[in-house]
Amino acid sequence: MSAIPVIAIFDVGKTNKKLFLFDEDYQIVFEKSARFTETVDEDGFACENIESLRLSVFDSLSEVFRMKEFKIRAVNFSAYGASFVYVGADGKPLTPLYNYLKEYPEELSQKFYNDYGGKEQLSVVTASPILGSLNSGLQLYRIKHQKPEVFAKIKYALHLPQYLSFLLSGQPFSELTSVGCHTFMWDFARNRYHEWVQHEGLTAKLPPMLSPNKVVPALFPGNNYKVGIGLHDSSAALIPYLVNFSEPFILISTGTWCISLNPYNHIPLTAEDLKNDCLCYLQYQGKPVKASRLFAGYEHEQQVKRIAAHFKTNVVKYRHMSFDPGIIERLRKSEILRFEERDLNSFKDDTEAYYQLILDLVAEQIVSTQLVLDGSAVKRIFVDGGFSKNSMYMNLLARAFPSIEVFSASMAQASAVGAALVIHKEWNRKAIPNDIIELKYYSATSSISI
Questions:
Q1: Cys-Cys link to 247, which of 84, 90, 199, 379 (CB 3.0-4.6 A)?
Q2: What confidence score (pLDDT) does residue 448 get?
Q3: Closest to 233 measured CA to CA, from 14, 6, 7, 8
Q4: How far apart are CA 157 and CA 255, in angstroms?
Q5: Local structure of 36: helix, strand or coil
Q6: pLDDT digits (tens, 9 = 90+) for 324-341
Q7: Do 350 and 317 lie in a common domain?
Q8: Which residues form the Carbohydrate kinase FGGY C-terminal domain (predicted)?
């Protein structure tokens, strides 16, 4: 029996690191997970164990290359952003992989904004909210000003997805989805690095830009496979939708954060947008994606615990509650509040309280999504992640946008699939299948699977 042609995708999250093998129909034929104990940086702050990650990539690849049933044609990477690996002339990291949650020095932050036009102007031009170390360009700026001896030794500053690619190819690249995600480095109006990056001499540390649909030869031993240059995971997760649907859409990606992504809204961000937690990503073709964020998944989790504790029930009860329009109509008459401000004694039972929670969260979601909807001819809204399985949430969302088709979308490992799709022609002899994403349509009155 001949070996199955596959692509290997490393999907590196903050907590879980996974390796998937996809066949030419984008079915997962092998997967492996790993979790590493964090280490600490020189200040004792928890950070990624970059050495464990490096060894895991090599060990996992060696393992699958030994599997006779598969023929690996390409390898690519999807990884969390906002993290730089600083590589010396020998190709080895010079510092820990600093945690983007690490507090940013206030004095250095003030110097940066004072030197380069102030917070509001820089935020608008770079489409980046003020996020401290999550603005990864400021991490490199910090190295230059606080560790000049380390800065002098840096040969390349690589975002994490591109560092993983570098491990296999030996070729360093910068890449748009990583550079274009709240880094403070990209001037969206001029479509180039912001002038402060040049002024600070950071461009000398940034390798040449390469499109994420390109591949390079492998250096790590294998079977003549190709290496992709990796993508930021949020942008990778959008690719299956961009590939499968031609009409304008919004993707609401729900988890701890609910992020509304609109690849078809090209109106520049305003200062007001940024105050409302909007930002822009660059998608894999270099076009801006307007996005808004809502902390709704976290809020749902906390308030469900409050409801369960108050009514002495189990949180499991609320995972699959059916949709009752009658209860919704009764509750619609209540005062508009955030659910955390509501008195649970005002509800006759826990079911009514949970309905009110979803009503309140959807009301916030409508406002958040509207921020990126305005100014674009969107025909469909896709919802993936946790809330896509919540019947109440989906029905209310459909009723809120009656002129737009609303779908729950189900797809295993969207970021990993996106990283495979972006280099499809480099490894796959078949056409891209049209059933990668499973959809369920919600109308104002009913829902059907398609």
A1: 379
A2: 42
A3: 14
A4: 30
A5: coil
A6: 988 988 888 778 889 999
A7: yes
A8: 247-426
Q: What are phi and psi of 421, to 5 degrees?
A: -65, -35
For the segment 388-412, the average pLDDT, to the nearest whole number, is 93
Same-domain pairing of 219 and 271:
no
Q: Residue 370 sits in which domain range?
A: 233-450
Which pLDDT score, from 0 to 100, does residue 447 have?
A: 47
- Closest to 21 measured CA to CA, from 83, 79, 67: 67
> Which of residues 229, 255, 284 is at a domain's end?
229
Q: What is the pTM of this model?
A: 0.88
Q: How many CB atoms lie within 10 A of CB 39?
A: 14
pLDDT tens for 122-171 read: 999 999 999 999 999 999 999 999 999 999 999 999 999 999 999 999 99
Instruction: DSSP letter for 279, please.
Output: E
Residue 293 has pLDDT above 70, yes or no: yes
**450 pLDDT above the threshold of 50:** no
* Residue 32 C-alpha from the chain's centroid: 21
Counted domains in the chain = 2
Q: What is the DSSP code string of 374-428?
A: TTS---EEEEEEGGGG-HHHHHHHHHH-TTSEEEEEE-TTHHHHHHHHTTHHHH-
**Helix (H/G/I), strand (E/B), else coil: 431:** coil
* Domain shared by 444 and 340, yes or no: yes
Listed residues 229, 245, 265: the one ending a domain: 229
Tokens encoding 335: 């005062």
CA 177 – CA 283 distance, rounded (Å) = 6
- Measured CA to CA in angstroms, residue 220 lies from 58, 67, 291, 387 at distances of 8, 17, 37, 41
- Give me the residue label for tokens 């609303």: 406
Distances (CA, A) of 161 to 175, 177, 244: 9, 10, 24
Provide the residue type at 118 as one letter.
G
Q: How many whole angstroms separate alpha carbon 300 and alpha carbon 250?
A: 22
Q: Rounded distance, CA 92 to CA 298, Å?
A: 37
